[in-house]
Each structure stands twice: as C-alpha cells, then as structure tokens.
Design a protein that fits this description.
This protein has 74 residues and is an all-alpha fold. It has helices at 13-24, 27-36, 51-57, 61-69. The longest helix is centred in the first third of the chain and has 12 residues, at 13-24.
C-alpha cells in the first residue's frame, strides 16, 4: 500500500505536497487535503498552476472530476 502524503504545517505544503498529490492522482490524499482546507481547490501555486491543472496535465481524471465537483475552475 502506498504511503499517504501528510502535511508538515509549513507554508510550502500546497506546492510541495498538495499539488504533487494531485499530479500523482492520489485521490484519497487530495480529498483529505481539501477537507482540511477547502480554499486549496482554487489556490494558485508556483508557475500559476492549480490542483486541477496538475491533475489534468498528468491525465488523472478522477482527481479532476473530484476537484471540479468541489468548485475548481478550469
């Protein structure tokens, strides 16, 4: 079973952990992170990327669908 990502409490959590979970297609972690901080659904990280961008770019459709249903914008 893959190790689940956990937040460190640092300001870099979004770019270093949350965006990477979306890009990996780790839906369980993305759901946990969004539950903890719903604003992350629309947050823009480094290079202007959002969680939905990262997931879509990597072809992680289940994550894209989840994020869009939670209010993410394309």
């Amino acid at each position: 079973m893959p190790k689940r990502a956990t937040l460190t409490g640092k300001a870099s959590d979004f770019s270093g952990i949350v965006l990477k979970a979306a890009a990996r297609g780790d839906l369980a972690s993305v759901q946990t992170f969004v539950a903890a901080n719903p604003a992350w659904v629309r947050q823009v990280g480094p290079h202007g990327r959002t969680m939905v961008w990262e997931a879509a770019y990597m072809g992680r459709l289940s994550v894209v669908e989840y994020l869009l249903s939670g209010g993410a914008e394309l």
